[in-house]
Automatic annotation (TrEMBL):
<keyword id="KW-1003">Cell membrane</keyword>
<keyword id="KW-0378">Hydrolase</keyword>
<dbReference type="InterPro" id="IPR023346">
    <property type="entry name" value="Lysozyme-like_dom_sf"/>
</dbReference>
<keyword id="KW-0511">Multifunctional enzyme</keyword>
<keyword id="KW-0472">Membrane</keyword>
<keyword id="KW-0121">Carboxypeptidase</keyword>
<comment type="similarity">
    <text>In the N-terminal section; belongs to the glycosyltransferase 51 family.</text>
</comment>
<keyword id="KW-0645">Protease</keyword>
<keyword id="KW-0808">Transferase</keyword>
<feature type="transmembrane region" description="Helical">
    <location>
        <begin position="25"/>
        <end position="45"/>
    </location>
</feature>
<feature type="domain" description="Penicillin-binding protein transpeptidase">
    <location>
        <begin position="428"/>
        <end position="682"/>
    </location>
</feature>
<dbReference type="InterPro" id="IPR012338">
    <property type="entry name" value="Beta-lactam/transpept-like"/>
</dbReference>
<feature type="domain" description="Glycosyl transferase family 51">
    <location>
        <begin position="71"/>
        <end position="245"/>
    </location>
</feature>
<keyword id="KW-1133">Transmembrane helix</keyword>
<dbReference type="InterPro" id="IPR036950">
    <property type="entry name" value="PBP_transglycosylase"/>
</dbReference>
<keyword id="KW-0812">Transmembrane</keyword>
<comment type="similarity">
    <text>In the C-terminal section; belongs to the transpeptidase family.</text>
</comment>
Length: 768
C-alpha cells in the first residue's frame, strides 16, 4: 500500500514537473519571439523603415508632363510610375484586387491571422498568407527574397512589422492606392496608371471589368502573366479573378460568363521618350528642366530629380491642338516627299543640286563624323581609315519611311544619302495675348530625326522678314499701307549703307508692276519695294525693331536683310509676328504654367515677360498689310478653290477660309527654305519646310516655294482646329484700335498717283 501511494506521489510529481517545464519553455519561447520581433523592429536583422520613411516612402515616381487641357503627354522616368489617389482607381479594379489578393483586407490590421494559420498548417499548399499590406511592405521596403529558410523567416517577420506600422499610418484606401502605384507590371510600366496606358492606352478610370481583371491577375506574377508573351495564361488567370469576384458577390455569374467569353484585347503602347505626342517639345522641355533643377533646390537644399521625384510639369501645350499640328505636318510632308523623290530620280548626285563633288564629300564626311557609328568606333580606338571603310560595308538596318519603319540591307554610307533626302518641318502655334505655346512640332519623326526645327534650328526666313521692314517704314516714315511706290529697277550703290558693291535687287518673276501701294507690294512680295523702304529707313533701324520683336539672331546691318537673308528660328518668328496680333506688345513665348512636387505643392510658377514695341495703330496697319497677302497675294489659295500649278501637293486643298487671315509666305534663294506665317486674332502659327542640308532642295518654285511647301500645313492645321469647337480658335476680325490714325482701307486711289518714297536703290532673289 505504501508502494502504491509512493507511485501516485511520483506520478503527480512528474506531471507538475512537466507542467513547469512546458510553461518555462512556453515563456522562454514567447519571450524569444517577442525579443525577435523587438530586435527586428530595432533593425538588428537589417534596416527597418523609420517613421519618416513610412510617411514618405521612396516613391521613384515618374515626372509627368501635363497639357493645358489636363492630358499627360509624356513622362521623364527611370521607372515608369505615376501616382494615383484612391479616388482615381476604378471600383471594379479595387473589387477585383481585394477579392483575389486579400478577401479579409478590410477586417485585419495588416496580418491575416486566419490565413497565416491556414498557410502554416498546410505548409503553404493551401494558399499564401500575405495580405495586401504585407505585399505593399515588401514592394516598398523589402524587394526580393532569400532562398535560405532562416533569412526568409526574418524577412517575413520584418514584413509583418512594417505591415502593422503601415496600417497604423495609413487608411485602408490609401494602402490600396499605394499598392496599385508600386507594382511592376512589366514593359517599363510600374503602377496601375502606367499599366493601363501601356497595355490598353487608356486612363485607369476608363478600364472595363475584364481589363481590370487582367491587371489584377498580373499582381500574382507579372512575368508569368504578361499579356504579350502568354495570352492563354493571362486569359485563364483573368477568369480566376472573375471567379473570385463572383464568390465575393461583386459581379453576377452571368456577368462572369460574359467577360470570360471576351478575348484578350490589348492596345499596347510602350511609353518612350522617342515616341508619342509632342516628342520634340518634350526633349526641349527636358533640356530646360536640366537647367531649372540646377537653379531651383528642394527645401532641404538637395537637387530635384526629374526621373524619380514625381514632379508634375503643367505646360501651355494643348494636347488636341498638338495632335492636329502633328497630323497636318505628317499628312503634308509625306505628300510633298513623294514629289521630292520623283524629282531626285534623275539626279545623279541626289539629293544635292548644283554643288561640286568636293562640297558633296564634305557634307557626307560631316554626317559620318556626327554618327553614332563613328563615336562608338572611335571609343574602340579605330583609325579614321578603318571607320570610313566600315561605312562602305552592307549591313542590316531599320530605316524610316512614310509607310512605316522598314528592315533593309544597305551600306551606312548609302543610308546617309537616303536620310538626307527627307524634307523636314517645324511648326509652332502660340496665343499672341498670353505667349502660351499651344503646339510644337520640331520635325517629322523624333526617333530618326532628332534635330528640333522650332527652338534649335535657325533657317533663312526669306520674305517673311519683309513685314519687319514695312513696320519700320510705317513707324519712322509715317507711311501707311495705302501709300504708293514705284516698282521698277533700283540700285543701292557701293558705299551706301555699308554695301561693298552695287546692289540691285530683282523681283522673283523678273518683271516690274509700276506704281503699287505698300499693301500690294507686300501681298505680291515685291523685292524692289522692300529694298526701297529699307534704303529710306536704313538697315540699322530695321535691325533694332527686329530685335525688339524678340528675334535673338545677330542680324547684319545690310540692305539685303530686307529680302530675308537672315537665319531665325520658328519660335522667334512666331513671337515676332504675335506682337503685331497683340497690338504692338511683345510677349515672350511661354511653355510652362507651373511645376508641382509629388504632394501637389506649387514649387515654380513663371512670370510672363512682355514689353511694348509698336503703338496699336502701327501694329494694326501691319496686320492689314498681311491680310492683303491672303486676299490677293501669294497666300490667296487659302481662299480659292480653282487649283493651280502643283495643286496635287497642296495637302487639304481647297481650304475655303472666309474669315480674316493675316499671313506671309517666304521662299529663300534656290528654294532651300519654304515658310508660312499665319495669324488669326488668338492664334499665330509659323511653319518652315526644307531639307537638313540647304543644297538638298526642289528644282523649281512650283514645289519649293513657301506657298506650296509650308502654307498647306497651316491650312490643314487650321481646318482641323476649326473643326474642333472646344479649341475656340477665332474667326473674328482683328481688333481695330479706336480713333485709328493710319489709313488702312485702300479702296479709293488718290487722284494723282505718285511715288511717296525717294528713288535710289537691292537683294538677291529671295522672294515669295
Amino acid at each position: 500500500m505504501a508502494a502504491k501511494k509512493n507511485n501516485q506521489s511520483n506520478s503527480v510529481k512528474d506531471i507538475n514537473y512537466y507542467k513547469k517545464k512546458f510553461w518555462r519553455i512556453f515563456a522562454y519561447s514567447l519571450l524569444g519571439v517577442l525579443a525577435f520581433f523587438l530586435f527586428a523592429s530595432w533593425g538588428l536583422f537589417g534596416s527597418m523603415p523609420s517613421f519618416e520613411d513610412l510617411e514618405n516612402p521612396d516613391s521613384n515616381l515618374a515626372t509627368e508632363i501635363i497639357s493645358s487641357d489636363g492630358v499627360v503627354i509624356g513622362k521623364y522616368f527611370k521607372t515608369n510610375r505615376s501616382q494615383l489617389k484612391y479616388s482615381d482607381l476604378p471600383k471594379n479594379l479595387v473589387d477585383a484586387l481585394v477579392a483575389t489578393e486579400d478577401a479579409r483586407f478590410y477586417e485585419h490590421s495588416g496580418i491575416d491571422g486566419r490565413g497565416t494559420l491556414r498557410a502554416a498548417f498546410s505548409l503553404g499548399t493551401n494558399g499564401g498568407a500575405s495580405t495586401i499590406t504585407q505585399q505593399l511592405a515588401k514592394q516598398l521596403f523589402h524587394r526580393g527574397g532569400s532562398s535560405f529558410l532562416p533569412f526568409r523567416i526574418v524577412q517575413k517577420i520584418k514584413e509583418w512589422i512594417i505591415a502593422i506600422r503601415l496600417e497604423r499610418q495609413y487608411t485602408k484606401n490609401e494602402i490600396l492606392a499605394m499598392y496599385c502605384n508600386v507594382y511592376d507590371f512589366g514593359n517599363y510600366a510600374v503602377g496601375v496608371s502606367s499599366a493601363a496606358q501601356t497595355y490598353f492606352s487608356k486612363d485607369p478610370k476608363d478600364l472595363t471589368i475584364d481589363e481590370s481583371a487582367i491587371l489584377v491577375g498580373m499582381f500574382n506574377n507579372s512575368s508569368l502573366y504578361n499579356p504579350l508573351r502568354n495570352p492563354v495564361g493571362v486569359k485563364n488567370r483573368r477568369d480566376v479573378v472573375l471567379g473570385q469576384m463572383v464568390k465575393a458577390k461583386m459581379i453576377t455569374k452571368s456577368q462572369k460568363e460574359k467577360y470570360q467569353a471576351l478575348p484578350i484585347a490589348l492596345k499596347f503602347k510602350l511609353e518612350s521618350h522617342r515616341e508619342g505626342t509632342a516628342t520634340y517639345f518634350r526633349e526641349y522641355l527636358r533640356d530646360y528642366m536640366k537647367k531649372w533643377v540646377a537653379e531651383n533646390k528642394k527645401p532641404d537644399g538637395t537637387d530635384y530629380d526629374i526621373y524619380k521625384d514625381g514632379l508634375k510639369i503643367y505646360t501651355t501645350i494643348d494636347s488636341r491642338m498638338q495632335l492636329h499640328a502633328e497630323e497636318a505636318v505628317s499628312e503634308h510632308m509625306k505628300n510633298l516627299q513623294e514629289q521630292f523623290f520623283i524629282e531626285m530620280k534623275t539626279n545623279k548626285n541626289a539629293p544635292f543640286l548644283n554643288i561640286t563633288q568636293a562640297e558633296t564629300d564634305r557634307i557626307i564626311m560631316q554626317a559620318m563624323k556626327n554618327s553614332t557609328r563613328w563615336a562608338l568606333m572611335k571609343e574602340m580606338d579605330k583609325s579614321d581609315e578603318d571607320i570610313i571603310a566600315s561605312f562602305k560595308v552592307k549591313t542590316k538596318m531599320r530605316v524610316f519611311t512614310w509607310k512605316g519603319e522598314r528592315d533593309t540591307v544597305m551600306t551606312p554610307l548609302d543610308s546617309i544619302r537616303y536620310f538626307k533626302h527627307f524634307l523636314q518641318s517645324g511648326l509652332m502655334a502660340m496665343e499672341p495675348q498670353t505667349g502660351n505655346i499651344k503646339a510644337w512640332v520640331g520635325g517629322i519623326n523624333y526617333k530618326y530625326f532628332q534635330y528640333d526645327h522650332v527652338g534649335q534650328g535657325a533657317r533663312q526666313v526669306g520674305s517673311t522678314f519683309k513685314p519687319f521692314v514695312y513696320a519700320t517704314a510705317i513707324e519712322q516714315l509715317n507711311m501707311s499701307p495705302c501709300d504708293s511706290i514705284l516698282d521698277g529697277p533700283f540700285m543701292i550703290h557701293k558705299g551706301r549703307h555699308n554695301v561693298t558693291a552695287d546692289w540691285e535687287p530683282r523681283n522673283s518673276d523678273n518683271r516690274y508692276r509700276g506704281m503699287v501701294t505698300l499693301k500690294q507690294g507686300l501681298a505680291n512680295s515685291i523685292n524692289t519695294v522692300s529694298a526701297k523702304l529699307i534704303d529710306r529707313t536704313g538697315p540699322e533701324a530695321v535691325v533694332e525693331l527686329t530685335h525688339k520683336l524678340g528675334v535673338k539672331t545677330e542680324i547684319p546691318a545690310q540692305p539685303s536683310i530686307a529680302l530675308g537673308a537672315v537665319d531665325i528660328t520658328v519660335e522667334d518668328m512666331v513671337a515676332a509676328y504675335s506682337t503685331f496680333a497683340n497690338q504692338g506688345v511683345y510677349v515672350k513665348p511661354q511653355f510652362l504654367s507651373r511645376i508641382e512636387n509629388k504632394s501637389g505643392e506649387v514649387i515654380y510658377e513663371p512670370i510672363p515677360e512682355s514689353h511694348d514695341v509698336l503703338n496699336k495703330d502701327i501694329a494694326f496697319a501691319v496686320i492689314k498689310l498681311l491680310e492683303g497677302v491672303t486676299e490677293t497675294g501669294s497666300g490667296a489659295r487659302l481662299r480659292t478653290e480653282g487649283g493651280g500649278s502643283g495643286d496635287n501637293r497642296w495637302t487639304g486643298y481647297p481650304y475655303m477660309f472666309r474669315n480674316p487671315i493675316a499671313g506671309k509666305t517666304g521662299t529663300t534663294q534656290n528654294q532651300s527654305d519654304g515658310w508660312f506665317m499665319g495669324m488669326v486674332p488668338n492664334l499665330v502659327t509659323g511653319v518652315w519646310v526644307g531639307c537638313e542640308d540647304r543644297s538638298a532642295r526642289f528644282k523649281s518654285l512650283t514645289y519649293g516655294q513657301g506657298a506650296t511647301a509650308a502654307l498647306p500645313i497651316w491650312g490643314y492645321f487650321m481646318k482641323l482646329c476649326y473643326a474642333d469647337p472646344g479649341l475656340q480658335v477665332s474667326k473674328s476680325e482683328f481688333e481695330r484700335p479706336a480713333n485709328l490714325s493710319i489709313k488702312v482701307d485702300c479702296y479709293s486711289r488718290p487722284a494723282v498717283v505718285k511715288d511717296t518714297t525717294q528713288t535710289d536703290q537691292n537683294t538677291d532673289e529671295f522672294e515669295l
